[in-house]
Amino acid sequence: MLAISIEALIKIALLMGGLMTAAAYFVLLERWIAAWVQDRKGPNRVGIPFTKIKLFGLGQPLADGLKFIFKEEHTPRHVDKILFTLAPISILSAALAVYACIPFGSVLPKGAIPGVDHQIELIAAPGIDVGMIYIFALSSIAVYGVILGGWASNSKYSLLGGLRSSAQLIAYELPMGLSIIGVVLLSGSLRLEDVIGSQASSGMWNAFAQPLGFVIFVVASFAEAARLPFDLPEAEQELVGGYHTEYSGMRLIVYLIAEFLHMITASFLIVILFLGGWHLWGITGSTNEVTWFQAIARIVVLNVKIFGVIVFFMMIRWSWPRFRFDQLMSLAWKVMLPLGLVNLVAVACFVEYEAPLKAKLGVLGLTAAMWGLSLLAWIAAGILAPLHTDNSARKDEFVLAAEDRNLGLRSHV
Amino acid sequence: MKPDDPKVKWVEEPKLGLAGKMYLPALIQGLAVTTKHLFAPKMTVSFPEQRPEIGNPLIYRGVHRLNKDEQGRVKCVACFLCATACPAHCIDIIAAPSPWPDRDKYCESFTIDELRCIFCGMCEEACPVDAVELTSLFDLTGRSREEMIFDKEKLLSVYDMTKDAEPMKSASLGGAP
Ligand code: SF4
Ligand code: SF4
């Protein structure tokens, strides 16, 4: 019992330390990428304090942290103080608690640590059978943090911002859930370890087996993490702020850290659910019988993949313009949701008739069929979905509107 | 204005093609552009170590200076034109009878509040004798508000500092020396 508690505590410490450091350094990475995309150099000044050593600006997160500590903590007088403080806490604790069920590696070799007789799994709470449900239940708590923050601020801008953001978060939860059901059907388990295991043993990552589900999941996680092009929850400059208009100092930072954690969580999930987790053909093996080399290779592979996805997240930020809110909603309800259903049906058929189809078409043929279906569905959605991107003024509409006004005037006269 | 007014020119946007409606091709295009810039040469000027190059220092509007004539006297004749022209009201002049025979007045005190100045260059335009000029010094800093109020001595010392790099504009632009 004691050994297990100590093991869990060590894992939690590793995870929390790693996550917080990662969040701090991803802020720096984000600023670097932002700069490089704009042909600037980015933060490269802050190095070791009191020396002239610059270290490519790697000291920047430390300086930022110090700055936050000395920042004035201001609570506006008109807010509900308890809820106002509770909102960021709830969002951050939910964002952190999610990691209980997310593996950050695979397993250590048997007998790796003397005195421990079971195999150590690199996940804070191993063997929880409803892991995936737990994760998505907790990530939806973000909605409460957002609404609570908007409500407690006692300001109409924050309230509207909170409502807007929660509408977005709830809307994208649905397509996300649909694409996850596809993954669950394919691997037959709600445990993330098993999802990776099934991808590793078949060598076929879920992204290849169900490309449509992959795209939907990626888009939905962008929206859930409130990253561009779906960053309407807090477009500070453009939208008179979001739900945290009234926040400042440490509470705001907590919100922003939770935001970054969401992005990291989303990258973890994308990699684990669709990109094979720690699996890489020919290097990492696929069973729990690992050597030290494989155990470390798995951790490295997982982290490199996650890093890649995060860089992708950051690059998208500078590649695509923001959606307008109605466009964002119609994308969720009129494009992503139907596509999610198509994907779900396709995967269900795939699982149900796998054996006879495989005999007839072969593995490659089966995959090609899935890809063809996804492509067709995508094109159909593109053609059939109402185009809300076009909001330019049209002459006939203007003339009609003018006539309407004239008629209205006449009837008044 | 009516929508069917012949003077109104209506422009129809080109219709989105299939690739545009598919979202993904456009996304990949955008990514390609950003990725290209990721590795493009950077244009950052690391300021204190590296000075930015100012295109033409003669038309740059930085810190002011008060020019001196050949005998080292201040050129200003205390006509108040610059103070009148200044939209920010930051020039303060006290005139006194001139000790020199070639003019009636000179400025006993001449202060410019650099904190209020908007560097519009109107004072330079207004001066009939080209006494006040803007230089290309742009890194104007101070530790207090008082330090940023430039008096006559300071403005004259700016002239001494910049006269070699930036000759008096009136000469080069064809005005009276
Ligand atoms: S530059 Fe403009 S604002 Fe500044 S002192 Fe001259 S006239 Fe005034
Ligand atoms: S600086 Fe020029 S414009 Fe201003 S008072 Fe002196 S002579 Fe007149």
Features of this protein?
heterodimer; A: 413 residues; mainly alpha; 14 helices; B: 177 residues; alpha+beta; 3-stranded antiparallel beta sheet; two-stranded antiparallel sheet; 6 helices; 5 strands; binds iron/sulfur cluster
Morphology call of chain A: globular
Unreliable parts of chain A: none
Number of strands of chain A: 0
Please indicate the percent range of residues of chain A in DSSP E strands (runs of 2 or more): under 5%
Overall SS class of chain A: mainly alpha
Largest sheet of chain B: 3 strands, antiparallel
Largest interface: A-B, 29 and 27 residues
Rounded to the nearest angstrom, the distance between the terminal CA atoms of chain B is 55 Å
Mean pLDDT of chain B: 87
Shape estimate of chain B: elongated
Biggest pleated sheet of chain A: none
In helices, the fraction of residues of chain A equals: 55-70%
Give the structural class of chain B.
alpha+beta
Average residue-wise pLDDT of chain A: 86
Distance between the termini of chain A: 87 Å
SSE order of chain A in H/E notation?
HHHHHHHHHHHHHH
- Give the strand order of the largest sheet of chain B, numbering strands 1, 2, ... along the chain: 2-3-5
Ligands in the model, by name, code or SMILES, are: iron/sulfur cluster
Percent of residues of chain B in beta strands? 5-15%
